[in-house]
Amino acid sequence: MGFKSFRIIHMKKNIQTHGFHLVDPSPWPILVAFGAFTTTLGGVMYMHSYSGGGTLLSLGFGIILYTLFVWWRDVIREATFEGYHTSMVQRGLRYGMILFILSEATFFVAFFWAFFHSSLAPTIEIGAIWPPKGIEVLNPWGVPFLNTIILLSSGAAVTWAHYAILANKPRAAQAGLAATVLLALVFTALQALEYIEASFTISDGIYGSTFYLATGFHGFHVIIGTLFLTICLIRQYLGHFTSKHHFGFEAAAWYFHFVDVVWLFLFVSIYWWGSA
């Protein structure tokens, strides 16, 4: 048997006969776990003024960012160039993304629970009224209402990009994604400005704690969604997405729509009702 015949037989033995993706061994899960542990330890040390806490926190955060980059790179390579993301794999990824979004929703359920528990029956320690005495609340029809319009507009833009991908219009998809990212950045900048100008802080009793925890956690989700969609914009520019193969974009769009819905609840309950 010649070398060429042996090579053909060997290649035939490696042909995949099922629709699943048997993932190769990867160093990234244990590396990101180490980065998360380092970040947590460094954060605790920093908040308690231990020497080297800030350095350890920065090191851990850097490890997480690096791991996210190389892990995401590997997933993109497997999905776009190696063909491992079959229809069966994509179905499983969709289920996983739905469950992830549901798990994120439970975070916000806890935050809203804390807010309504304190606001519906305010204790005597805070003056038996809501908002508590001494708290000068933000005007909901100022920056918060403007941010509502901006975030809903960004949700419309990402939907536009989705339909453009389905219609095989790459330039329109790029424009929609660019508009979404730009609007998300404006939202984040306005929320940062709002925090700077607010007359209360996270340490100002239960109102400050629930307000900054809920809105800040949402703002963190907006930043993550912006990064997600920025990667999608780059991938769309590189021609990675087709009308039949674009789950990476779908996952980002679902996540961003979830962020939009949460903001509507935040605006109505915390900004509007909570300040009345």
Describe the protein.
The structure is a single chain. This protein is mostly helical. It has two domains: 26-84, Orthogonal Bundle (Helix Hairpins); 86-270, Cytochrome c oxidase, subunit III, four-helix bundle (Four Helix Bundle (Hemerythrin (Met), subunit A), Up-down Bundle). The protein has eight helices and no strands. Helix 2 packs antiparallel against helix 3. The longest helix is centred in the middle third of the chain and has 34 residues, at 87-120. It is globular and about 70 Å long.
Provide the β-strand percentage band: under 5%
| Termini separation | 85 Å
Number of domains: 2
Radius of gyration: 23 Å
Q: Mind telling me the CATH class of the largest domain? A: Mainly Alpha
The DSSP helix count reads: 8
CATH homologous superfamily descriptor of the largest domain: Cytochrome c oxidase, subunit III, four-helix bundle
Ranges where pLDDT stays below 50 over 5 or more residues in a row are 1-14
Query: Average pLDDT across residues?
Result: 88
The major β-sheet equals: none
The helix/strand series, from N terminus to C terminus, equals: HHHHHHHH
Supply the CATH architecture of the largest domain.
Up-down Bundle
Tell me how many strands there are.
0
CATH T-level fold name of the largest domain: Four Helix Bundle (Hemerythrin (Met), subunit A)
Percent range for helical residues?
A: over 70%
Oligomer: single chain
Q: Which structural class do the helices and strands define?
A: mainly alpha
